[in-house]
Specification:
2 copies of one chain form a homodimer. Chain A is of the alpha+beta class. The first copy, chain A, folds into 2 domains: 2-270, L-amino peptidase D-ALA esterase/amidase; 278-400, ArgJ beta chain, C-terminal domain (Ubiquitin-like (UB roll)). Chain A contains 11 helices and 16 strands. Chain A has helices at 55-63, 86-101, 123-134, 141-148, 200-213, 248-270, 289-301, 303-310, 316-324, 359-366, 393-400, and strands at 2-4, 14-19, 32-47, 68-76, 108-113, 156-164, 167-175, 189-194, 218-219, 229-234, 278-286, 336-341, 344-350, 353-354, 370-376, 382-389. In chain A, helix 1 crosses helix 2 (86-101) and helix 2 packs parallel to helix 3. The model of chain A has no long low-confidence stretch (mean pLDDT 91). Chains A and B meet through helix 8, helix 9, strand 14 and helix 11 of A and helix 8, helix 9, strand 13 and helix 11 of B.
């Protein structure tokens, strides 16, 4: 497997575009994007588990019931959620895209991100879609990722190449963060493409399992959004023998999909609202994978751990505390904790008791821009990794005045 | 029922004291307190549900197994948690107090609050306890509450008088916040006294039910501490006929205890680390009380709601979002939301859809120092109230550099 430049148009058969249509006031900020597959694709998606679901989620779930799709349309600047006319407008978005592309409306995936509860301005979308369709190109993936960004400060885009049965296949993806990020089952928005040929049921399984290990292991602020979605379109144009069962080929696909989604998840965490550091919590020695995940997410989600990391303070007691209130089976007297980064490694807790470490060395480790919190539960063999970011003044500033 | 001045020494039979013993560097900050009951008391306590439990919690649970106690000793500045010699030192604290007071060590409730994972300096405690015992007085309750404060900026102390069978009885209490506050079952530290005569089993029931409706409905930062404890000592000196069964007398006791604990809980929320506003979420129309509590706690616990309140931003979509990911049964299409304060009331959402409200009026409501978030789920009759505070730069500052 190797990384490629580009993202969603790296696999064969996909074009993309993005532009400013007018939902946002800032004319320099793109706010509408389109992905188009040159031939019908197998498709799968996972969605937010929030009971309050955005209208686009409802419409996409219905459209993807067939297991196939040819296009994705997504706006930023408005979530089209908690509006009386939300479903109608999400369906209109599909209809506009379908008309411009010469496909059926039920072949379109629709998504929205932004403020909840404000009516979506549909006129600028209607007006812009024909230009958007005309602008579709392989180079358009950068404009597309720009158009889905909200408070994101950097593009999240990756692509990899791998082999299935001797044929080169590709998976590419883009994603957006960066607040209201605590995905449950699905995630923030991520759009993935592949030219591998794989049955829809397996495509869904691969996406579900991958989301569980990647996007669902990210928490920026503990708030699970109403509009989370990760979807993948598979064009099959790589020419591999269709993957129809679990086995080595499926595993290779899973590995490649896992690589793209892990890279996207890490970038989402790194670019969490106001973040100054990427935090990674590696839990080992858990009784089972679910325990390891719960433990890792609890540490990553603790406001006190996050604030300590902002201050480069090796306050490992807060890590123990977060483990203690997690759903995982944790025996405090068995737990070891260490911090590491490119600044080195410092062991701070052994068997639930503090070690005598140098505060200076610890600060040097914690001041780096990627910090790993190592937790060994010393119970059994299971492990998991979660990603997050520190809690900074910037998070408060961004969210204290988001709408106005 | 009427409010009294004072707190834990307002009921008959209790003395208190607090002083600086030397656990903290700042000689002006008291760090050790003692409460003494002139005769043996019935006693009950509820504790943190964190699996990582402070050593004092373990020792107090053992001592209170008998259902009686005569003293409480508590230090701030060090949590005596995750230390190899924690249990031994917590037992020593009981022994020092017992010796100075002429009682048995197992009649002592012990508590600690502060940094986790640093060995507790026991010598200054040993040295100070005799002076502390000599200083015991009814006026000493202020020194006692001062001694348990950590990042608290104000004293939390209340007392009420009520009648049981024609006899005046009193309940008093003190508490500390103000970070790592997301109590589960028990709470941050709260010490309560009463001169009512009530059986230990009923005393425990009253405390448990009250804690569930008061302390457990507060969240500052979602972090459940390792050292949470609320305990109550009942001297019986009021002379009422002993309460031995549920009924009107028990209800009167519960009401008075509820009043004191509600006042303490609100003060803990108001004084949350960095807080600029007290938030109260009143959920009505829930299917059951548990749903109402889950919904209220989810809104109060949302970082995004908290940050919006800091910015006086009527971003009700975040309230809907937090309801949606709570454990409560919520139909988004039935939910009404309003904000109120002494600045007025503004209805912002009806049946899950935004209302056309004046942003200026909303800002005037939200800029007050106590803001109520009203949520009507319109499902059934159950209700609950939760308390919290806004998320500010101050929280990040306090927790970004707590130890050093």
């Amino acid at each position: 497997m190797k990384h490629l430049d580009g993202s969603i148009t790296a696999p064969l058969g996909f074009l993309a575009a993005g532009l400013h249509c007018g939902i946002r006031k800032n004319r320099l900020k793109k706010d509408l994007m389109l992905i188009f597959a040159e031939k019908p694709c197998d498709a799968a998606a996972v969605y937010t588990q929030n009971r309050v679901k955005g209208a686009p989620i409802v419409v996409t779930q219905k459209n993807l019931a067939s297991g196939s799709a040819r296009a994705v349309i997504c706006n930023s600047g408005n979530a089209n959620t908690c509006n009386a006319d939300g479903i109608e407008k999400a369906e209109q978005m599909c209809a506009f895209a379908a008309q411009a592309l010469g496909i059926r409306p039920d072949q379109v995936v629709v998504a929205s991100t932004g403020v909840i509860g404000l009516p979506l301005p549909i006129a600028p979308i209607k007006k812009a879609v024909p230009s958007l369709a005309k602008a579709l190109s392989r180079e358009g993936s950068i404009a597309a990722v720009d158009a889905i960004m909200t408070t994101d400060t950097r593009r999240k885009q990756f692509a990899v190449e791998f082999e299935l049965g001797g044929k080169a296949c590709r998976i590419g993806g883009i994603a957006k963060g960066s607040g209201m990020i605590h995905p449950n089952m699905a995630t923030m928005l991520s759009f993935l493409t592949t030219d591998a040929d794989i049955e829809p049921a397996l495509l869904y399984e691969a996406l579900l399992d991958t989301a569980r290990e990647t996007f669902n292991m990210v928490s920026i602020d503990g708030d699970t959004s109403t509009n989370d979605m990760a979807c993948i379109l598979a064009s099959g144009l790589a020419g591999n023998a269709r993957v129809t069962a679990r086995g080595a080929e499926y595993d290779a696909f899973r590995e490649a999909l896992g690589e793209v989604c892990t890279c996207l998840a890490r970038e989402i965490a790194r670019d969490g609202e106001g973040a100054s550091r990427l935090l990674e919590c590696r839990v080992t020695g858990a009784k089972c994978t679910e325990d390891a995940r719960e433990a890792a997410k609890s540490v990553i989600g603790s406001s006190l751990v996050k604030a300590a990391m902002f201050g480069a303070d090796a306050n490992w007691g807060r890590v123990l505390c977060a483990l203690g209130y997690s759903a995982a089976r944790v025996d405090p007297l068995l737990v070891d904790v260490a911090f590491s980064s490119k600044g080195g490694r410092v062991n701070v807790c052994k068997s639930g008791t503090g070690l005598d470490f140098s505060e200076e060395e610890a600060a040097a480790v914690l001041k780096c821009d990627e910090v790993v919190i190592h937790v060994d539960l010393n119970e059994n063999e299971a492990s998991a990794v979660a990603w997050g970011c520190d809690l900074t003044y910037g998070y408060v500033k961004i969210n204290g005045d988001y709408r106005t």
